[in-house]
Write a structure and sequence with these properties.
- GO terms for molecular function: transmembrane transporter activity.
- It comes from Cryptococcus deneoformans (strain JEC21 / ATCC MYA-565) (Cryptococcus neoformans var. neoformans serotype D).
- Belongs to the SLC35F solute transporter family.
- It is a single chain.
- It contains 18 helices and four strands.
- It is mainly alpha-helical.
- It has one domain.
- It has a four-stranded mixed sheet.
- The chain is globular.
Length: 434
């Protein structure tokens, strides 16, 4: 009798993975909350920089500076590489200077005899011919994945850097034409694009809840766009359309850029989830560092093109306050995008869209207190309409439904990811420090 009760109390494989998945889920939510605050602050800061009294409307250059900040993430990797190379050199020198008898004899204690590499290859499960495999244990589907190599990490960073730059340039440019609240809300429609692209890439399933949620969020976008169109000015001339330094406000053009940003955000989120799957599979600092390095080098030729065509005249920040804003935004991007990627990998792309929608009340609160005056907002109650508030509410409800469904999915514990490394099994977050 006692044995039967003890067996009933023992955790099942499903319950263990449910606890693990929920723990990752809540950690991801905590990271998203931090990203929400940082991104909303960054939007207001960038809007003030582009449309204030000392306007410095250079969305491409601002995005370039922010992207270049990722290169800093290469420093820890270089330090570890240099430290490892130095230790290796010291070890080689120790072997050369040591007594050959001690080196060959176990009693000397200098060099333990290693096992044959081919024996390890045959004995350890992580060295099987097909490291990427799926198995089912006690009703739980486990996906076994090998860690990404440096070359694979660099390849992913190469395409990711391009998509990331377009997404961030579009949102930075849109802040000069429409309000921060509208940019934040329309950027949240990345959930619509995420669901569509996720279905194509087979990382998202179509359910009635998801479809209803996407429709609700899309209707919310229509209401917000309608609210902006009521206060929009006549369409800009061709020269004003090409020159982003124009100080006039054209909400519809800004909304279009914000939607473009949302689409590219969905592209890089889904493709990153498909290629990386789990944050323990890759060195995310190395990946971001490569992305920053690629953009820093290969985007330099675009500056003369933008300058001589008049699309964006090259100039440095004109005032000390503008330099300070750039530095603050630089730091925000450096930290928030790293947290954003970690949050997405710890949870799901759908949950990331919920995080984006959480910036809506913060942005509207900022507009209410006049923080978005420089970006086309009127401030106070005059800066809000019934349409914009209703649209924001529908977007929140839609993405809230998506987030709740993902929570229930994680709670079931019927799926898990196992990262297999040489000489060890790695179940997610218990990664050893290098």
């Amino acid at each position: 009798m006692e044995t039967a009760q003890l067996l009933l109390k023992m955790p099942t494989t499903s319950s263990i993975w449910a606890a693990y998945n929920l723990n990752r889920y809540f950690v991801g939510v905590a990271l998203l909350l931090g990203v929400v605050v940082l991104w909303t602050a960054s939007n207001f800061i960038t809007a003030g920089l582009e449309t204030g009294d000392d306007a410095w409307n250079k969305p491409f250059l601002i995005t370039y500076f922010n992207t270049a900040s990722f290169t800093i993430y290469l420093l820890p990797t270089l330090w570890r590489w240099r430290k490892g190379a130095r230790h290796h050199a010291m070890g080689q020198g120790h072997v050369r200077s040591g007594d050959a008898e001690h080196a060959a004899s176990p009693s000397g204690g200098y060099l333990p005899i290693p096992s044959a590499p081919h024996e390890e290859h045959l004995s350890h499960p992580s060295h099987r011919k097909d490291p990427e495999r799926t198995e089912r244990i006690d009703g739980v589907t486990l996906h076994h994945l090998p860690p990404l190599t440096v070359r694979e990490t660099a390849k992913i960073a190469a395409w990711w850097s391009i998509v990331w730059f377009i997404a961030n340039w579009a949102v930075n440019a849109s802040l000069a034409w429409t309000s921060v609240a509208s940019v934040t809300i329309l950027s949240s429609t990345s959930g619509f694009f995420t669901l569509a692209l996720g279905r194509i890439c087979r990382v998202e399933s179509l359910t009635s809840t998801k479809v209803i949620a996407v429709i609700a969020s899309f209707l919310g976008v229509l209401l917000v766009t309608h609210s902006d169109s009521l206060s929009s000015t006549p369409p800009p001339s061709p020269s004003a359309f090409l020159s982003l330094s124009s100080a006039s406000s054209h909400p519809i053009f800004g909304d279009a850029l914000a939607l473009t940003s949302a689409a590219f955000y969905a592209v890089y989120v889904i493709l990153l989830k498909v290629r990386v799957v789990d944050e323990e599979r890759a060195d995310m600092q190395l990946m971001l560092g490569f992305a920053g390095l690629f953009n820093t080098i290969f985007l330099i030729p675009i500056f003369p093109l933008l300058h001589y065509t008049g699309l964006e005249r090259f100039s440095l920040p004109p005032t000390s306050s503008a330099w300070f804003i750039c530095l603050v935004n630089f730091c925000i991007t450096l930290s928030s995008d790293y947290l954003y990627v970690l949050a997405m990998l710890k949870t799901t792309p759908t949950l990331v869209t919920v995080g984006l929608s959480l910036t809506i009340p913060l942005a509207m609160l900022g507009e209410f207190f006049g923080l978005g005056l420089g970006s086309g907002g009127e401030g106070g109650m005059e800066g809000m309409t019934v349409w914009s508030v209703a649209g924001a509410g529908m977007v929140c409800v839609g993405f809230g439904m998506l987030g709740w469904q993902e929570y229930l999915k994680n709670k079931q514990g019927n799926e898990g990811v196992v990262i297999e490394r040489e000489g060890e099994y790695e179940y997610g977050s218990d990664r050893e420090d290098e």
